[in-house]
């Protein structure tokens, strides 16, 4: 089933249940385009970099762009959290100040996001907007599993589907 058909199926279910039930419980959605190779190298570019040896973080500021395989994440600020004692392995990326995540035909925008590298999970929060072709889904929190290409939107979920679109 294509991502559009899965999204359309979701819209039909939402219409049958009524918007109140869908808004209260959240919505599972397919993110065929939002898959990523979580083992691929992570490239980060920005205007500035500050490193804190005490807490094991690095903070990128200004025009931040993160590239991993086909996935692109842009933000105003990105804090890199290292997970092991020698701080050679990235554990999490904390993006803020307007985040956009793009992979294939799918794109998601939010105020902030946390990407946990090992699990391949991204949690986007704050006025989340997911665009799949001409279809739009919004809510307050979006959790994406980049390995499976699935996710869940929560918090006053709303969808707009364009009849006859692919």
Write the layout of secondary structure elements.
Blueprint: H1 3-17, H2 19-25, E1 27-30, E2 43-45, E3 48-52, E4 57-68, E5 71-82, E6 90-96, E7 99-103, E8 106-110, E9 112-116, E10 121-132, E11 135-145, E12 150-154, E13 158-160
Antiparallel strand pairs: 1-12, 2-4, 3-4, 4-5, 5-6, 5-7, 6-9, 7-8, 8-10, 9-10, 10-11, 11-12, 11-13
Features:
13 strands; disordered N terminus; mainly beta
Question: How would you sum up this structure in a few lines?
Answer:
The protein has 166 residues and is mainly beta. It has helices at residues 3-17, 19-25; strands at residues 27-30, 43-45, 48-52, 57-68, 71-82, 90-96, 99-103, 106-110, 112-116, 121-132, 135-145, 150-154, 158-160. β5 (71-82) and β6 form a beta hairpin.
